[in-house]
Amino acid sequence: MAKKITSVIKLNIAAGKGTPAPPVGPALGQAGINMMEFLKKFNEQTAPQMGFTLPVEITVFEDRSYSYKVKQPLMTDLIKRAMGIEKGSNNPGKESAGRLTKEKALEVARLKMADLNTNDEEQAIRIVAGSARSMGIQSDF
Amino acid sequence: MSAWTQVTAVLAEEPEDWSVWAELFERHGLPGTLQTDDPPTMSAYLPPGGEAGLEPLRDVLLERGAVRVETALVEEEDWAESWKQFFKPRRVGERFVVRPTWEEFAAEPGDLVVVLDPGQAFGTGDHPTTRMCMECLEQLPVAGSEVADVGCGSGILAVAAMMLGARSVDAVDSDLPAVEATGENAARNAVEVRALLGRGFEPLAPEATYDLVLSNIISAALIALAPEAGQRVRPGGHWVVSGVIESNWPDVRAAAERAGFRLVEARQELEWVAATFVR
Asked: Which chain A residues are within 8 Å of B31, Cβ to Cβ?
């Protein structure tokens, strides 16, 4: 029998470094989830990705049991990695933080494809370019 | 009491990529964010004393197109404990009842009541991985057997095995709070469990073998453990594995089979798989 879902909590948490501090604490405490249990599994599972922030979707069921899905790192993190930079521009309209090649955009798009609302590579590349632009990174295509 | 300031950016519509917003928060020293789809919002929390960060963050969020920025004060509390109000006694499998220490329960004849305070450790009987493990355990000839629980968490499975009449249980975890919780939970249930700190089978006597090994861990750890499980489980003995996400199940199964195990039973709840192997 399918269990009734009471809520879906979407968090972005630093890989391997989840703590009960907000936003995790208030969000999961209210949902009645044994947070330390969740964090322990999350931290263990994501330790190899330390340095990235990971989107996590936690589905809470009527009986307070839960399941969770860890997605690919934030697209902005993947862009930063592909570009070899630590942060985007503080003033994206005016200051550039670099240029993104189509090859790099494709690399990010492929990694992140499963989390996007599209199966179309060109469309995904366009989303990557859009996110890069908001970080002050221009695209070469 | 000190308060955190929740800062919420309300957006006009769901963005194609949320990470752009998460990155803005992160750049203001707030790497953890919470998002909602309807209405589309993203929030983060400024810690007590960090209120000076509010104005610059608000300005940036509005400049980037947030419809408005809302703030709320959230009193600091022991969030790690707040879930306890929801943890009620629950039936697991045919005979087990898991009762948190702070709850009452009127047991019926034949019930095996495991009294539990998981502390920081995994295993309240609330999670499918734990529940399915207990169900597998119930199906096995545990009475009189020698058991090892590798990755014991709260000790719930170790205690359950003793309640089913195991002669002895050695419980191992690499996490000290888990080893402590296991010792405490065994005492609470008046059973004896030898709780040891270490990885895999490492802290156990090198020649020790078992009738039954329980491992509710994660797939990668199970795969790594399989060859030694094949040595530690006596011929005809069982290995119960859990904590396996559906997509990893074929790999876990293959690793167990390579180590000389044969599948007896596999269960699935949501995306979690638990299984019993015989050697």
From this structure: 12-14, 53
Is the CB of residue A10 less than 8 Å from the CB of residue B14?
A: no
* B115 and B140 both lie in a single domain: yes
State the smallest CA–CA distance between residue B22 and chain A in angstroms: 8
Residues of B in contact with A70 (CB under 8 A): none
For residues B96 and B54, membership in a common domain is answered with no
Whether B246 and B161 map to the same domain: the answer is yes
Kindly state whether B248 is in contact with chain A, defined as any CB-CB distance less than 8 angstroms.
no
Q: Read off the amino acid at residue B259.
A: A
Are B229 and B126 part of one and the same domain?
A: yes
Same domain, B114 and B232: yes
pTM given for the model: 0.63
Q: Is B26 on the interface with A (CB under 8 A)?
A: yes
CATH number of the domain bearing residue B189: 3.40.50.150
Number of structural domains found in chain B: 2
- Predicted local confidence at residue A3, as pLDDT: 59
Cβ contacts (< 8 Å) between B23 and chain A: which residues?
Answer: 74, 76-77, 88, 135
Residue B199, CB-side half-sphere exposure with 13 Å CA sphere = 4
Q: pLDDT tens digits for B57-81? A: 999 999 999 999 999 999 988 887 7
Residue range of the domain that includes B18: 3-82
pLDDT at residue B45 tops 60: yes
Same domain, residue pair B120 and B244: yes
List CB contacts (< 8 A) between B16 and chain A: 116-117, 127, 130-131
Put simply, the chain B residues between 137 and 156 with a CB less than 8 A from any chain A CB are: none
- ipTM score for this prediction: 0.93
CA distance A42 to A47: 8
